[in-house]
Write a structure and sequence with these properties.
single chain, globular, binds iron/sulfur cluster, five-stranded parallel sheet, 3 domains, alpha/beta, 11 strands
Length: 386
């Protein structure tokens, strides 16, 4: 029987749960859910997705194979805001892990009452990741989300402060674990114990594209050029070939799958291009700062696209390219030319952007903290004067 994964916001009657479990889809989050469920707790998984991570389609597999109940929540806009304004820096590539966790925990905190949940659990393991899972980071995340006493990390709980759910007896601390570090022995023992099927272990939710240099470079290019990039822009970065000339962006399919995806991704304001009578890739030219592109930019993008077709390269003379923009399709004639003024974004530029952005974010965060401290002092003085 086909099951449907609920999307947060569905208006079904709201069932109540003991706790919510953040489900990245990685093994640790799955084991966390199973470890708590073994105590007889009623749990709802919350799986966040965005152009950068997540795979809502996997939630159905978790349900069918392990009986995990989960809702899927789109966190694209919030993640994009974090990338424009990272407050706690980036990891090795463009992964703002601490901000990302704060974002997801804050979003989950906001739905705790709705689901009657007394705690939020995560699959974090003390010392497993250098940026976001050392003791200070775990404590900062707890403090910055206002989740003191409510944030449970069952895999490392015995090494951490007791939570309200443990103190009240809702969660039995004795049955929680003290895993630490990067080793996987403890997790593998749990895999055995809970009989987690291979397909779940081998199929994490696709990893995080922000940690991949190729994707991260494309995202950084977009963030640099476009001040209001949205989820559709970032999704477009996840496949095909990308070329930029200043503020002009063309994406060219590498295979049939890319070509289909490009056609599906095309917005009414995009220009889609294809060779009229010859086999070759689809290209999508996405205007950034104006609704229209100049004819010379369209022609250059078409020349570049045509250069990826063997048939076009073998042709003698110009080729015909059909260009669709909104309702209008026109055919232009161009020479076949690999344009070396349309550039592939490079990591060195992305890295420089990332370093500058992280510093800007740090200053902003300090300024916010200073302002918050002053606001507290002002409130205290006002109270004393009364
Ligand atoms: S790796 Fe990606 S999904 Fe995971 S915490 Fe970092 S930014 Fe978020």
């Amino acid at each position: 029987m086909e099951t449907k994964t609920p999307i947060e916001g569905d208006n079904a009657a709201v069932e109540q749960y003991d706790g919510l479990v953040l489900m990245s889809g990685g093994l640790d989050s799955i084991l966390t859910y199973l470890l708590l469920r073994k105590q007889g707790l009623k749990l709802l998984g919350v799986h966040y997705y965005s152009p950068f991570f997540g795979a809502p389609q996997k939630a159905e597999m978790w349900k069918n194979l392990l009986g995990i109940e989960a809702i899927c929540v789109d966190t694209s806009d919030k993640m994009i805001k974090r990338l424009y304004k990272p407050h706690r820096g980036f990891g090795k590539t463009l992964n703002p892990c601490v901000d990302c966790k704060i974002n997801m925990i804050t979003q989950t905190k906001a739905i705790m009452d709705k689901y009657g949940a007394k705690f939020v659990a995560t699959g974090e393991v003390l010392g497993q990741r250098p940026m976001s899972q050392h003791m200070a980071a775990l404590n900062n995340i707890k403090a910055d989300t206002g989740m003191e006493g409510k944030l449970l990390r069952p895999l490392s709980a015995k090494l951490l402060e007791e939570t309200d759910a443990e103190r009240s007896g809702l969660v039995d601390r004795e049955q929680l674990l003290s895993l630490q570090g990067r080793g996987r022995k403890g997790q593998m023992a749990l895999v055995e114990q809970f009989k987690v099927p291979e397909e779940v272990i081998e199929s994490p939710a696709g990893g995080c594209r922000l940690t991949d240099e190729t994707n991260a470079t494309r995202y950084a290019q977009l963030l640099t050029v476009k001040g209001d990039a949205d989820a559709t822009d970032f999704r477009l970065c996840n496949f095909a070939r990308h070329y930029w000339k200043g503020e002009h962006w063309v994406v060219i399919g590498r295979n049939e799958h890319d070509n289909d995806q490009l056609l599906l991704s095309a917005a009414p304001t995009d220009y889609t291009m294809r060779l009229e009578t010859l086999m070759g890739p689809i290209a999508l030219l996405r205007p950034i700062h104006s609704a229209d592109e100049a004819p010379e930019i369209i022609a250059e993008a078409a020349q570049h696209m045509a250069s990826f077709s063997k048939h076009a390269r073998d042709a003698t003379g110009p080729v015909r390219v059909s260009v669709t923009h909104g309702e209008k399709t026109e055919v232009i004639e161009v020479t076949v030319e690999r344009r070396d003024d349309w550039l592939v974004p490079i990591w060195a530029t992305a890295k420089a952007w990332k370093v500058a952005k992280a510093e800007e974010g740090k200053q902003e965060r300090w300024a916010e903290k200073r302002e918050a401290r002053w606001a507290k002092k002002r409130a205290k003085w006002a109270e004393q004067e009364q």
